[in-house]
Design the sequence.
C-alpha cells in the first residue's frame, strides 16, 4: 500500500486509484463498529485537540498586546504579565497535547489489539485449503501491516485532520476578528502557495517513482551478478562485458533522473520560499497603507504582527489537508483488505450438536469418498476401505496419487466432496472437531518444531505433562539419551524450525510428542529416505511401540513396514486398485507387483546385503 509521497503531499498510485474500495453504508458501519466501544475516549481526544488549537491562538494574540500595550505604551509591568500569561497558555496547551496523545494512542492500541485478536481467531478456523492457496507473506501482511496501518490512521490521519481543521478555523476566526480586510488578503494568498506546491510535488513524485524503478533494476543486476553463483555463471559464459553495459545503462538512467529530481526540488523550494514570504510582505504593505496613509486608528502595529503570525500558522495545516483524500482512501482500502479476510467463510465448521463418542475404539472407514482441492479436478475417486481397530494399514503408490490426501480427510483438514469418512461408525463431520483431533496423532514427513526449547515442543502435545512423562516418552522415541547428554537437557533451544537438530532427531522428537498425546489413531508418513541408516533405524524402533495397540494409517516407504501391515492399499490415479496383504498382492501380478518390481525389490536386496555384512 505504498503510494507517492513528497514532503507533506501524498498522491495515489494508478493501482490505488483502480482498486479504491466502494464507499457504502455497510463498509462505514463496520468501521464505526470497531470504534464504537472507544467513542467516549476518542471524542474526548478530539475535544482536547480543538481546545488545544484555541489555546495555541492566544500566544499570537498576546504577542500583539505585548507590542502595543507593552513596548509601544512603555508599560513594563503589563509586558511581564502578558509574557507570563503567554507562557502559562503554552504550558497548558503542551499538557493537553500530552493527554491527547495518550488518549489517542490508548484508543488506537486497543482497536489494533481487537482487530488482531479477531483476525487471528478467524484464521485459526480456516481450513488447510486457505493456507495452501494463499501466500504466507500476504497472510502476515493482513495480520500485521494492514492492522498497523489502520492504527496509524487513527493515531495520525484522524487526529491530524481534526487538528489541522481546528488550527485553520481558529486562525481564520482570529484574523477576521482583528481585521477582515487583512484576513481576506491572507486567505487569498493561500491558493498561490497551494497550487505550485501541489503541481511541483506531483512532478517530483513521478520522478522519484521512475528513479526507484531504475534503482530496483540496478539492485537486481548487482544481486544476480555479484553473488557467488551469479558471478561464476557470468565468468563461465564470458558475459562480463554484456553485464557491465547493462549496469552502465541503468546507472546512466539513475543519474539523469537524479539531476531532474534535484532541479525540480530547487524550483519547488524557490516557489515555496517566494509565496511563503509574499504573504507576510503583503500583510505588512496593506497594514502600512491602512495605518500610515489612511490613518486607521482601529489597527495597530501589534495587530499587523498578529495577522502575520496567524497567516504563517495556517500554511502547515493547509498543505497537510491536501493529502487527506489520499489518506482517507488508503484507510478505507486497509479496512477493506482486513474485512476481506474476516468475511472468508469457515470451511471446516464444528456442529453445534457435535458428539464425543465414548469409548472410542478407532475403527476407521472411508465410504465412496470423492475429493478434489479444486472441485473441477478430483484427487480421490470413489475411495472405500476400512481400518479395523488396533490394525495397521499401509498405503502405497506413486507420488501424487492421493496418499497424503487420505490422511488429511481423517483429521478434517479438508472435508470430502462426496461420500463420508467415519470413526466407529460416526461421520467425522458429526464429531466434535477438538475431540476428533485430540484422538488422532500425525507424524508428518517433515517434522515441524517451534522456535523454543525441547520442553516447549513436547508440552505442546500435553501442557500438564510431568518430568517423568517427558522422560518416558523420549525413551520410547529413542531420543532421551541425546537430550540427557545436552547441558540444558529439556531446556535446550532447538532454533527456528528445529534447525539445531538433525532430521532424524527432529523426527524422533515429533514421535515423542505424539506418544505424550496418546491418541487412539495414528497417521504416519514414513519418509526416512533422506536420513542416514542409524537415524532411520532409531526411528523404526520408535515407531513400533507407537503403532502397537492403536489404529494406524501409514504412508509406507519401507518394504519392512509394508510387509508388517495388516492390509495394504495400492493407489493409482486417486483410486484404490488393489487391497490385501503383501504375499497375496504379489500373487495377483498387478499394480502392487509392478510397484514392488520398480521400487521395493532392489531395496529389499540392499537390506539383505547390509544384514549379511553386519552378520559377518
Sequence:
Amino acid at each position: 500500500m505504498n503510494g507517492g509521497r513528497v514532503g507533506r503531499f501524498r498522491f495515489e498510485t494508478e493501482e490505488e486509484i483502480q482498486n479504491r474500495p466502494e464507499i457504502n453504508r455497510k463498509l462505514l458501519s463496520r468501521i464505526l463498529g470497531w470504534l464504537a466501544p472507544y467513542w467516549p475516549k476518542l471524542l474526548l481526544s478530539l475535544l482536547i485537540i480543538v481546545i488545544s488549537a484555541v489555546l495555541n491562538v492566544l500566544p499570537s494574540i498576546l504577542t500583539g498586546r505585548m507590542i502595543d500595550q507593552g513596548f509601544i505604551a512603555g508599560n513594563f509591568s503589563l509586558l511581564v504579565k502578558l509574557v507570563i500569561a503567554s507562557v502559562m497558555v503554552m504550558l497548558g496547551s503542551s499538557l493537553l497535547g500530552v493527554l491527547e496523545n495518550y488518549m489517542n494512542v490508548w484508543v488506537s492500541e486497543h482497536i489494533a489489539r481487537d482487530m488482531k485478536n479477531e483476525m487471528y481467531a478467524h484464521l485459526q478456523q480456516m481450513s488447510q485449503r486457505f493456507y495452501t492457496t494463499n501466500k504466507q507473506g500476504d497472510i502476515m501482511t493482513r495480520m500485521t501491516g494492514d492492522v498497523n496501518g489502520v492504527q496509524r490512521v487513527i493515531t495520525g490521519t484522524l487526529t491530524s485532520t481534526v487538528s489541522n481543521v481546528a488550527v485553520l478555523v481558529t486562525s481564520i476566526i482570529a484574523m477576521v476578528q482583528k481585521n477582515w480586510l487583512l484576513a481576506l488578503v491572507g486567505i487569498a494568498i493561500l491558493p498561490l502557495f497551494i497550487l505550485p506546491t501541489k503541481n511541483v510535488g506531483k512532478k517530483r513524485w513521478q520522478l522519484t517513482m521512475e528513479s526507484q524503478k531504475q534503482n530496483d533494476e540496478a539492485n537486481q543486476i548487482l544481486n544476480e551478478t555479484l553473488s557467488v553463483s551469479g558471478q561464476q555463471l557470468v565468468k563461465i559464459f564470458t558475459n562480463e562485458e554484456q553485464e557491465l553495459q547493462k549496469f552502465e545503462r541503468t546507472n546512466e538512467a539513475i543519474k539523469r533522473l537524479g539531476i531532474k529530481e534535484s532541479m525540480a526540488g530547487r524550483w519547488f523550494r524557490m516557489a515555496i520560499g517566494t509565496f511563503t514570504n509574499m504573504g507576510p510582505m503583503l500583510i505588512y504593505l496593506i497594514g502600512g497603507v491602512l495605518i500610515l496613509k489612511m490613518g486607521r486608528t482601529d489597527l495597530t502595529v501589534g495587530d499587523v504582527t498578529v495577522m502575520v503570525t496567524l497567516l504563517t500558522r495556517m500554511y502547515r495545516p493547509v498543505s497537510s489537508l491536501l493529502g487527506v483524500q489520499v489518506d482517507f482512501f488508503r484507510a478505507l482500502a486497509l479496512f477493506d483488505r482486513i474485512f476481506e479476510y474476516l468475511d472468508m467463510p469457515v470451511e471446516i465448521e464444528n456442529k453445534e450438536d457435535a458428539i464425543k463418542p465414548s469409548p472410542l475404539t478407532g475403527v476407521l472407514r472411508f465410504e465412496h469418498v470423492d475429493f478434489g482441492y479444486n472441485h473441477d479436478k478430483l484427487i480421490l475417486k470413489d475411495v472405500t476401505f476400512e481400518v479395523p481397530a488396533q490394525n495397521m494399514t499401509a498405503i502405497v503408490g506413486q507420488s501424487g496419487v492421493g496418499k497424503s490426501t487420505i490422511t488429511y480427510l481423517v483429521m478434517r483438514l479438508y472435508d470430502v466432496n462426496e461420500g463420508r469418512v467415519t470413526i466407529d461408525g460416526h461421520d467425522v463431520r458429526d464429531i466434535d472437531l477438538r475431540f476428533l483431533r485430540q484422538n488422532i496423532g500425525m507424524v508428518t514427513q517433515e517434522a515441524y518444531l517451534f522456535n523454543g526449547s525441547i520442553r516447549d515442543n513436547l508440552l505442546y502435545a500435553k501442557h500438564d505433562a510431568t518430568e517423568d512423562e517427558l522422560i518416558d516418552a523420549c525413551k520410547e522415541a529413542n531420543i532421551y539419551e541425546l537430550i540427557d547428554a545436552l547441558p540444558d537437557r529439556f531446556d535446550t533451544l532447538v532454533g527456528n524450525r528445529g534447525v539445531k537438530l538433525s532430521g532424524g532427531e527432529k523426527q524422533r522428537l515429533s514421535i515423542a510428542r505424539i506418544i505424550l498425546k496418546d491418541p487412539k489413531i495414528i497417521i504416519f508418513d514414513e519418509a526416512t529416505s533422506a536420513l542416514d541408516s542409524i537415524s532411520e533405524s532409531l526411528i523404526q524402533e520408535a515407531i513400533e511401540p507407537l503403532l502397537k495397540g492403536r489404529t494406524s494409517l501409514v504412508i509406507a516407504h519401507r518394504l519392512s513396514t509394508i510387509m508388517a501391515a495388516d492390509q495394504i492399499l495400492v493407489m493409482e490415479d486417486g483410486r484404490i486398485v488393489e487391497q490385501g496383504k503383501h504375499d497375496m498382492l504379489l500373487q495377483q501380478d498387478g499394480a502392487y507387483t509392478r510397484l514392488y518390481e520398480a521400487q521395493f525389490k532392489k531395496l529389499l536386496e540392499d537390506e539383505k546385503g547390509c544384514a549379511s555384512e553386519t552378520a559377518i
Remarks:
- DSSP finds 21 helices and twelve strands in the chain.
